[in-house]
Specification:
six-stranded antiparallel barrel; 1 helix; about 80 residues
């Protein structure tokens, strides 16, 4: 499933992505930090939590992330602060 990075906090190593089904996913990023509006794809449709490798379509690089949660916009805004 594809997603778009809609917010990034590089100081905390966090990012929020908007999934194609209009849900938000909270990411803790360990490698190849994404930029705003990057397109990424991963196994989001199974709603995994924990360590995953997702692919940044925009940069062509894989990213090691921890998927923290799937949530609403309000929770995503609080997470990225």
């Amino acid at each position: 499933m594809k997603a778009t990075i809609i917010d990034v906090n590089l100081n905390k190593g966090r990012a929020v992505a908007l999934l194609s089904n209009d849900e938000y996913v909270l990411l803790e990023v360990f490698t190849d930090e994404p930029e705003l509006h990057d397109e990424v794809c991963g196994n989001f449709h199974d709603y995994p939590l924990g360590c995953e490798i997702i692919h940044n379509i925009t940069s062509g690089m894989d990213m090691d992330v921890v998927i923290q949660d799937y949530c609403t916009k309000v929770v995503a805004e609080e997470y990225i602060k």
